[in-house]
Design brief:
The structure is a single chain. The chain is mainly beta. It has a domain of 188 residues: 7 Propeller (Methylamine Dehydrogenase, Chain H). It is 5% helix and 32% strand. The strands form 11 sheets. It has a 5-stranded antiparallel sheet with strand order 1-37-36-35-34, with no helix packed on it. β40 and β41 form a beta hairpin. The protein starts with 23 loop residues before the first strand and ends in a 20-residue tail after the last strand.
């Protein structure tokens, strides 16, 4: 019989930690557990995301994506039965959010906050963050990297799509800038539409408070200027612009930070003619060609005070570490490097070998107090004396306030009440009412958690278990009709399995091979790694046999392992590199398939007909494969 191949496309994202041995209560959690191995976990995630989606027959991913979106949308609009057939409802978790990267405050209503997600679109709260609703389900890119509201007409809004950190291979695609004239209910494209590029992402949009026709955008393509409220755009500065701020007392003045990218050296630039022309600044800041991802903050009440957080460039051996935190008190004429007690972009000792200034890098200053400044990336730091000294805002378990999730991407002060500060990070949205001294989580209804894998129970159709980006393992076990799930591990979670004979037996994996088992619905956990050696993958695969629940299959590099005793012991089955995709034949469970990760140019499929004793290569479609699945009724159909 001629086999058919079904490639199932699943969205994959993020990362996690290392763990110790033996039996752990679910609440056991401290900094040791958050040790982050390696120097680029976020890079690994983004790299994996793009590699599994590359098609050698498609020369331009962005264009293919845009065309697919438009085709699918047209089919849905023309369908007469979509509304009758599609009845999707959110299952949650509505008490946990995923990576949030942008925000905006409504200038007319202090209770209205907008937040942009890395992959979950645009969200709105009308009650100070107590609940959220989605506002962008029908836009071509659900990565919302920038949000702006017309200060003179709050029904007019702009969003810049794409998530831009580092390079084109490590960001979420953007489709340009979209515009709304009805308070975010509907969105239309502007002249800055980029279906032909996978490299576009938005970082900041700044709307002139005095001339609502004048808008500036910071993007991976440079600075763009609009003179008609965001309808049409013109590029005025070419380069990878990571941050942009405007002088609110003299809106003709603005500042842009450009990071080194390809042949375009970075720097900090200033305009005094509303973005028409730009001049590079000097006077104490790093020289041209020495800029990684850089963020700027300007004090609205004292706009001569500007702070710049600069990370080390890609070309530096210290890439992603802090280059320096700089301050000017004269509008950028001269700058002073501030003293900091540790690298704000790295995990502090003893884990300071992990730095991510290219990814987690925020700088923010109070709009009314130029001495109150926040900076950081992994963690959050604050100064009340203009950067002369700093306080360390650590993070801890949610059950031990003040909780603050790491990996900060956007930070803001509510203009109606500057003591109200907000952080938008990998854990969602956090709010402080006392200038950052204590924090509360504001994730209710913000359904943006990024799931790698999701498992359901065969004995309880309502039970789900999933691994998430930077937020561990979650399940709706024993939550009743609520969509508020329970968290069982922190960090990042991946493969999940629920024993089909006992819904209380769970198997999970986390970053770099934490294979864990729970026998009591997540109350306690055991490490199950006996007999396993070799290098561990960024994403660690683990699957369960379809008829023998004690048989498990997992892999390291370069060995695939088989367990016949529920993970208590593992034995090597085959040595072959980088196997991250695997499945069992549902009709003949002696047949199993494995496939190497699509980092390789072509994915190779191997099959065992004897329960893993021997393996042989079988034909493949000649391209990259991101998942394989067997027909549940026909043996040999893949």
């Amino acid at each position: 019989m001629k086999n058919s191949l079904l490639i199932l496309i699943a969205i994959l994202f993020s990362i996690s930690d290392n763990f110790s041995q033996n039996n752990y209560p679910a609440a056991f959690y401290n900094r040791q557990l958050h040790k982050k191995p390696g120097s680029g976990k976020q890079k690994k995630r983004q790299e994996h995301f793009f590699k599994v989606r590359e098609d050698s027959a498609v020369s331009n991913i962005g264009n293919a994506r845009w065309n697919t979106f438009n085709t699918s949308k047209a089919k849905m609009l023309n369908s007469q039965s979509v509304s009758a057939v599609a009845n999707w409802q959110s299952c949650g978790p509505d008490n946990q959010a995923g990576r949030m990267i942008s925000h905006a405050f409504d200038p007319a209503n202090p209770l209205v906050i907008w937040a942009g997600s890395a992959s979950g679109g645009l969200w709105k709260s009308i009650n100070g963050g107590n609940s959220w609703q989605p506002m962008s389900d029908n836009i071509p890119s659900l990565a919302v990297g920038a949000i702006a509201i017309n200060p003179q007409n709050t029904n007019e809004m702009l969003i810049g799509t794409g998530e831009g950190y580092l390079l084109s291979d490590w960001l979420q695609y953007g489709a340009g800038v979209l515009r709304s004239t009805d308070g975010g209910l509907t969105w239309l494209p502007t002249s800055l539409t980029v279906p032909d590029s996978s490299e576009f992402a938005s970082l900041n949009i700044v709307w002139d408070p005095y001339n609502s026709n004048n808008v500036l955008l910071a993007s991976t393509f440079g600075v763009y200027r609009s003179q008609d409220g965001g309808i049409t755009w013109t590029q005025t500065l070419n380069g990878y612009v990571s941050s942009l701020v405007m002088n609110k007392k003299n809106s003709a003045i603005a500042y842009a930070a450009m990071q080194d990218y390809l042949s375009k050296p970075g720097g900090i630039f200033m305009t005094s003619d509303s973005g028409q022309t730009w001049q590079q600044l000097a006077g104490g800041i790093p020289a041209t060609g020495d800029y990684g991802f850089t963020t700027l903050a300007i004090c609205d009440s004292f706009p001569n005070v500007i702070y710049a957080g600069v990370s080390q460039p890609l070309s530096s051996p210290a890439f992603a570490e802090m280059k320096g935190l700089y301050k000017t008190s004269n509008g950028g004429i001269t700058w002073t490097q501030l003293n900091v007690f540790e690298d704000f972009y790295c995990y502090p000792p003893p884990y300071n070998y992990v730095c991510q200034g290219w990814y987690g890098n925020i700088t923010a200053v109070s709009p009314v107090d130029s001495n109150l400044v926040f900076a950081g990336g992994v963690y959050l730091y604050a100064s009340t004396d203009g950067g002369a000294s700093w306080n360390y805002y650590d993070w801890a378990p949610a059950e031990n306030p003040p909780y603050m999730h790491p990996d900060h991407h956007s930070f803001g002060f509510n203009p109606a009440n500057p003591q109200e500060t907000w952080s938008f990070n990998d854990g969602g949205v956090f709010k402080s009412t006392n200038s950052g001294q204590t924090w509360v989580v504001k994730n209710t209804g913000l359904v943006t958690t990024q799931f790698y894998y999701l498992a359901s129970s065969a004995t309880n159709p309502n039970l789900m278990l999933g691994g998430t980006q930077d937020n561990g393992i979650w399940s709706n076990y024993n939550v009743g009709s609520s969509n508020s799930w329970n968290q069982f591990w922190y960090g990042d979670g991946f493969f999940c399995n629920i024993d089909y004979t006992d819904q209380n037996v769970w198997y999970t994996t986390e970053l770099f091979a934490k294979r864990m088992k729970s026998r009591d619905g997540g109350a306690t956990w055991d490490s199950i790694n006996t007999g396993i050696s070799g290098d561990n993958f960024f994403i660690t695969p683990l699957i369960m046999h379809p008829t023998d629940h004690k048989t498990l299959l997992c892999a390291t590099d370069p060995t695939v392992y088989l367990s016949i005793d529920s993970g208590a012991n593992w034995n090597p089955s085959i040595n072959t590199p980088y196997i991250t995709i695997m499945t069992f034949d549902k009709v003949n469970p002696q047949v199993m398939y494995i496939c190497n990760d699509p980092y390789f140019t072509v994915s190779n499929i191997r099959r065992s007909m004897d329960g893993g004793a021997t393996w042989s290569l079988v034909s493949s479609p000649g391209n990259k494969i991101i998942d394989i699945e067997c027909d549940p009724l026909v043996s040999g159909t893949l």
